[in-house]
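Why this split exists: single-chain examples teach little about how molecules sit against one another. For that reason, every record in the complexes split bundles all components of an assembly together and asks for one structure covering all of them. Below is a record exactly as it appears in the raw files.
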Amino acid sequence: MHLNTIQPVYFSPTRTSGKIVHAIAEGMNIPVNKEIELTYPTANQEITIRDTLAIIGVPTYAGRVAPTALERLKHLHGDSTPAVLVVLYGNRDYEDALIELRDWAKAQGFIPVAGGAFIGEHSYSTAEMPTAAGRPDAADTEIARNFGKTIILKLKEFNQPDEIPPLHVKGNFPYKENNPKTPATPSTVYELCTQCQYCIEICPTEAIELKEEIESAPETCIKCCACVKECPNGARIFNTPFTEFLFKNFHDRKEPETFI
Ligand SMILES: Cc1cc2nc3c(=O)[nH]c(=O)nc-3n(C[C@H](O)[C@H](O)[C@H](O)COP(=O)(O)O)c2cc1C
């Protein structure tokens, strides 16, 4: 199969999914289209991706595809378009996220050709209690590039996307149940906040507002921690017992898994 372009697609509040999607694309050595970025609120326009190879990356939230990612992905369609499916997770587990993404892709008209589960710094990692800090790192990126190369070699064996055999990935159906949301949200350290409003700009769900001070709306905040990771003044924090739980229980380095 001959491919002229690669189409990156991702939802990536703390940017790890985006990094891996780009690293896989780099390894393919084919011109890369401008990414379809689903991290920020979109116009909910229906988009069909065709005549390209899509690489679609999302984070794992509670062992599933991040719900906001899934909502936005529903507007994306394939036309027997080959797709590489990637989930990022924070060194705990990705459980049913990758199989859910593969099933979504099939239902939307994509042909899954390869899948990957990569590790990204956990959204709840802190300097004092790190979990997967700094990942994906150089070793992960190298694995992603090689994965890209291998996918291209595999695709050369086929003339048409519909000749590609079904893709098997790890995970179960029915998927793990989604846990009910916790009301807590990141908060602001007022002494450090300069009210620059960058957090408002980068919040994937427009959950942050400047009232008297910078505040998150509990109904819309998805606890992705983009504001915590990106605040230039370190003024946003998320106090959650998960930080310590993850630090204590998921310290051993996990390695990326690929399915092809
Ligand atoms: C609400 C929420 C739930 C999460 N659930 C999991 C999980 O079940 N397993 C895991 O290993 N990491 C989990 N993570 C961590 C993210 O999957 C991880 O940090 C990922 O790299 C974030 O991707 P992004 O940088 O593209 O936003 C969770 C993060 C958030 C915010």
